[in-house]
Amino acid sequence: MKSAREIIDSYDGRPLRIMEVCGTHTHEIFRLGIRRILPPGLKLISGPGCPVCVTPCGYIDEAVSLALEKNAVICTFGDLIRVPGSNMSLASARSRGAEIRTVYSPLDALELAQSDPDRQVVFLSVGFETTTPGSCLAVRKAAERGVKNFSILSANKTMPRAYEALKGSADAFLYPGHVSVMTGTALYERLCAEGVSGIVTGFTADEILTALAAVVELSRSGKPFFRNCYPRVVRPEGNPAAVRLMDQVMEPCDAEWRGLGMIPGSGLKFRDRFAPFDARVKFGISELRGRDNPACSCGRILRGECMPPDCPLFGKVCTPAHPAGACMVSGEGACSAFYQYGEKIDE
Amino acid sequence: MCVGISARVVRIDDGTALIDASGAERKVSAELLEDLEPGDYVMVHAGVAIAKIEGPSGEETAKLMEELNNEERTGDH
Amino acid sequence: MNERVTLAHGAGGQQTTELIDRVFKAHFSNPDFTADDAAVLTLDAGRLAFTTDGFIVSPCEFPGGNIGKLSICGTVNDLSCMGAKPLYMTCAFVIEEGFPMETLERIAAAMAATAKEAGVRIVAGDTKVAGRGQVDGVFITTTGIGRVMEKANLSGSRAKAGDAVIVSGDIGRHGCTILLARNEFGIEAPDVKSDCAPLWSTVEPILRAVPGIHVIRDATRGGVGTVLYEIAGQSRVGICLDAASVPVAPGVRGVCGMLGLEPLYLACEGRIVIFAPKESAPEIVKTLRSCPGSEDAAVIGEVTEEDPGKVVMLTEIGAKTLLPRPGGELLPRIC
Fold it and tell me: Which of C192, C257, C335 sits opposite B21 (nearest CB)?
């Protein structure tokens, strides 16, 4: 029996472009050095599945303004702290006196609001189908408990329309394991019927290598394929309770993806009855439009049209300490991973 | 995009599960999963248990590799 | 027992004397502890190591220690890493008005106990009280002097290709402990306690057992990952780190898994990284493992001629990649 490594190592077929959609896959693939062991015929492309990367810079501007002008306590995942806005990041807002708390869960933000009823607490809700139900849970509980000082600044996105937008960017997709936990695999079956190949997989070295071996093996027939390589966690039907909850609290809207532009129906906003927990409604702020560097190639990188070092800004004006574009912003972005894990060791 | 950790359920109390990930413990919401019991393994993301885990990772990848090898063999015929 | 430190305790009058007598003198008392403006010491001729370090930590008490213990360990360990037996220390306190006297006593007691364990005498000190909100609880600065062992020749610039890289125990426990003690993430890890410890009793045996050690550095802020980059830069060598051989306690691994953190960048306060010719590595590891607290000592990598200034990581799948350079505030990665 051949191991996953042997199958990958011996691949000598036509060039295959495989897009890992999920930022955590990107992170693990770089951390493990998986790109470095691939034969020339296999190429990994990092897709748009890092919510921090695709969050438009105007979102940070909104959060900074809530913190500094509305004096709200901002609760956020650590991922967002260093992301630059048009003028400043949350870290620089904090140094100017803003109260910015790093939390592990949206539910912690709700608890903080309940323990400090005199302060307005705003949770920065970014993320895809994996993360959104936690925010919805917090909002539903806040409504049940009549909490008046808790709200959410939402930039939540959903993946299905993004897959549509990415069609043709790769020969096969590594679908995001933990998004699939929630959504199930029906969409991937449908995409497969439309000619889009993909594999759902987990995040350990073994799981990622097995998925790549599966891409290699299943590509041989030349027919589109879908395989769930993470069935102990991902069920075909997903997590129905989570999907119901999201549908109860939020509804689809158009959303801007930093680097990709506007994708219709790919965002989520609060349904009317939960509007009191929408920070934009509560504080009367309108969605801000940030300014991106026009020379940035992030959009093309996210669509797999070029690699980070091909960008004129990469490693020069755009570094993890001073990111200019979406993919350099988060540790899970393609450019940041390329920069930090050094695509070439001996430069 | 979604850092998850697999953890063992220690106890469940009114929609909240105490979970243990190799010695790190936390209370998380168990409201999105039905029929959870102490001893179960769950995937946890941002303070929410999002899936029950069936069996260890090693077994799953071993089984998948066996299937792939079989497919290769049948493909050769 | 709700007594608190007041501005009067820092004003230099009778209350200051009372505070010093009751808290500091009571604990630090030794024949060299001075009541004068400066301690007068008689030292044998020879090479001396001399260093200073400031300590701020929130919370100031945590599982496995407190800021007092930390303030002794930090300076004693810096001396030890130069092959110097710690002899004398001074300490300066800046205390926030309203700080509980009881806590201050515990801090002073921990300093005395740690100094005793490290074989060092506290000979002089200073106390200031700052208004409420001007400092966070208590800040301590310690300065230490030590005598360098005769044949020791240690420096961060002496690592050479062919050296083994050895760590004296499991990493990241102090950083993990503080992260949890701040209670921001609702995570508990009952088995995780700070590794904070004075290390002369660890350094001395290996220096005696193995001549020709090139570098010893204690991994503090920024963790072992930061030390590796420091030495790679200072010695202009490459370092190849075998990721799978780095000892990490299960609880630390669990916390890092939840928060998306890398243990290599978490602070230690009782761990040293040693660079020495490969042949001597087994003896060093054996000697370390016989020292209390260093039972998990392990070889974690080697020094190479290639890739000067870089730390290359051999990953669990046998691939080589760069260890990302440590930088900035440690932030949990969740979404």
Answer: C257
